[in-house]
Structure formats: C-alpha cells, structure tokens
Amino acid sequence: MNHPIETITSPSNPLIKSLKSLERKKGRSETGLFLAEGARLVEQGLEQGWKAETLVITATMAERPHLAALAKRASAAGARVVLAPERLMSKVTHKDNAQSVIASFHQQHRPLDALTKTGDGIWIALYEVRDPGNLGTILRTADCAGASGVVLLETCCDPYSFETVRASMGSIFDMPFANASFDAFNSWRQAQGLSLTAASVNGTARHDKAPFGARSVIIMGNEQAGLPEAIEAQCDTLALIPMRGGADSLNLAQATAIMTYEAWRQRDFT
C-alpha cells in the first residue's frame, strides 16, 4: 500500500518527538519500535523483511535516484514516508552530520526455539553483556562468521538501542537473536546436542586447542565480572586466550571474535 509523501519542518511535530523518544529504552519499549540510520542499513532491513513504520529522508536529497527508489519501496511496504530538513534529522540522531535517511522499524522478539537448526553450526551466548557497542560489534562478527544465532542471557543491554544498531552495521537485521534465562538456554542447547565452550581466565585449554566440535555454543561473560562459577561448571570446555604484555584482558567483542573465528577455522571455514 503506497502512502503519499509528506513534508514536515517543525521540531515540535509529533513525529519528530516520537522518533526522538526512541533514543530511550522507555520509548522503544512503549512503541515496540527502534531507529536505523543510513540508506544502506534501511535497505538491508527492508530486504530482510523487517517492517518499517516510518522513513524520513532529508528533503534536499530526496530526488537522488537511490533515495527516491528507497522511498518508493518503503511506501509500497506500508511505511509512512516523510521529507524533513537536515536540522530535524540532526535533532533525532543527535549528530551534526546526520545521515540522509532515518527509519523506525518494528522490533522482533524471537523465542529461543527460533534459533534451532539442524546440521553444523556455531551459536554465541552472551551473559549479561552491558555495553551496546560490544553487542552490536558481536552481532556483526556473528554475521560475518555465518553463526546460526546469538542468545542474550539474563539481563543484557538492549539490542535495539541506537548504539547497538549502529555498531552492528546492519547485522541487527541479518543475525537472529533471542533472550533467555541461562537455565532455559542450557536445557535448549543440551536438547540440541550442542557443546558449550567458554572463554575464561580459568581456562585449561588454549583457545586454538579447544574442541569446539561441529555444533557448538561459545559463551562469553559480562565485561567486568566474566562468567559466574556456576555457569562455568556447566561448560564442556573452558578456553584460555593467550595474552602477554601489560594488558590483563581483551575487549569482549575482540575476545568473542577470536573464539568465533577459531571455532569456524576448526570447521575449515565451511
């Protein structure tokens, strides 16, 4: 269904206020929406079948062929399409050099069973990850490595925050993820016959010697506290990533990438 394209110019317009509210978790929770910024990300969301609520394009750029095509596509998918001056775009994104396209999308909340898959695969489980930049980067890494899904355990940061979506570089739309308690997740992964390997300072196997297996979950702990002992006790392998020099730890997203690519390497990158 195609909607007519509107033009707005006032910062007090209800749409601008509504889009600005999506920078806060309260706004995202109340509306079930989140923001994506940039033509490439928005195209990716539409391509993957995510439902766009509103598409806003900088008025002076609207005649550009690829943006006109994007507006037409979003409108055909049922989105409201709006043109706005650059100063209003900056108001929504809190950036002086705002992208020329912003869209609000409907969130997707999958059950854990949606990540079930037969055949070989790598899953990533994150226990109480707190930094949205880390979460977005890990979704991007999982996507690049062809992971089967990401599980957010217990209380993680919001995957639909502006920071996470930005850091994911579009992988928020490609990489399936689900929230779960550790107990529900552990029952699910055991039922699927998935091994569980943690990166840990208590590791007994070097990460490149850890037997990930053909169907494996890599579990990573909270940025500050790591994994609780009770969860490490449930793991099949505790892997240690070698380090030397003055730093005593790697960034969580870096460590997750090292573990993920090692598990994939052991499958000869297939």
UniProtKB/TrEMBL annotation:
Keywords: Methyltransferase, Transferase
RNA 2-O ribose methyltransferase substrate binding domain segment(s): 35-111
Any one Gene Ontology BP term: methylation
Annotated GO CC locations: cytoplasm
Methyltransferase is among the record's keywords: yes
GO molecular function (one): RNA binding
Pfam family, one: MRM3-like_sub_bind
The keyword Methyltransferase appears for this protein: yes
InterPro entries to which the protein is assigned, alphabetical: Alpha/beta_knot_MTases, MRM3-like_sub_bind, Ribosomal_eL30-like_sf, rRNA_Methyltransferase, SpoU_MeTrfase, SpoU_subst-bd, tRNA_m1G_MTases_N
Coiled-coil features, chain-numbered ranges: none
Source superkingdom: Bacteria
Family of the protein in this entry: Belongs to the class IV-like SAM-binding methyltransferase superfamily. RNA methyltransferase TrmH family.
PANTHER family referenced in this protein's UniProt entry, alphabetically: RRNA METHYLTRANSFERASE 3, RRNA METHYLTRANSFERASE 3, MITOCHONDRIAL
Protein name: RNA methyltransferase
Native source species: Hyphomonas oceanitis SCH89
